[in-house]
Design brief:
By secondary structure, this protein is α+β, with helices and mostly antiparallel strands. It contains seven helices and six strands. Helices cover about 40% and strands about 10% of the residues.
């Protein structure tokens, strides 16, 4: 038997990777799924909900957020317009209320990779500065003035089907640092969320909140309660 043949036989046979097995990433570039992402503090695991739970969450998002608050990303959607005709006063009041509800939703919901990244990075910077000013006391709320954001993120929803996963792998890391609950949706969630909001795909949604004590308008307080009801429902579904 030749020496080359013996060397070939002595080489270790690589183990076959099991289907649906996620390797533990060591670097950001190795992230294959949002279920397990590398970070400076070690791998961060985020479990996805079931397909049944996903369907319920998206159905309630459509009825309780998108439809109730007339919230859509579609450019072709017919938005209510104010009219100055006195005989249409009742219709004008209804349209004005719809516009106010839409603006409320816009002020609370951030959609898309770029927008959510800017939001969470700014919140993290505010948190770091606030912690420094408080002598290192930690806080997950950026409630300051000037260039800071007077709100906090109470929930982040991610679509697991985003490819490559590295596009969003920084989101679980920042959420972990700021103790923001993350819900991961399985399947083709980005397409389903996109359909719910009148666009092609939605990979990430962040829900902001304000303290009830900071809200003076009675209508806005009622909308905040309805909005919080959905957010709390989703947070209770996180595995």
């Amino acid at each position: 038997m030749s020496s080359s043949h013996q060397l070939e036989q002595s080489k270790p046979v690589p183990k076959k990777r099991k289907k649906n097995t996620i390797l533990i990433p060591q670097r950001l570039t190795e992230n294959e799924s949002l279920e397990l992402v590398a970070s400076p503090i070690g791998p961060i695991r985020t479990l996805a909900v079931s397909e049944v739970e996903k369907s319920i969450i998206i159905e309630r998002f459509v009825s309780e957020i998108a439809q109730k608050f007339h919230f859509t990303l579609s450019r072709s959607a017919k938005r209510p317009r104010l009219t100055s005709i006195k005989c249409h006063q009742e219709q004008s009041q209804r349209q004005e209320k719809e516009l106010q509800m839409t603006e409320f939703a816009k002020s609370r919901i951030t959609v898309g990779t770029n927008s959510c990244t800017r939001l969470i990075e700014k919140l993290y910077s505010c948190k770091a500065e606030e912690s420094s000013n408080n002598g290192g006391k930690d806080s997950n709320v950026a409630d300051t003035s000037g260039s800071h954001i007077n709100c906090s993120v109470s929930l982040c929803i991610l679509s697991r089907d985003v490819r490559p996963a590295t596009i969003l792998s920084h989101i679980p890391y920042f959420c972990h640092l700021m103790r923001i609950p993350v819900l991961l949706l399985p399947g083709k969630a980005s397409l389903e969320l996109g359909s719910a909001l009148g666009t092609k795909k939605v990979s990430v949604i962040m829900f902001k909140t304000k303290s009830q004590s900071c809200i003076d308008d009675l209508h806005e307080k009622k909308w905040q309660q309805q909005y919080d009801s959905y957010v709390n429902f989703v947070k209770n579904k996180i595995p």
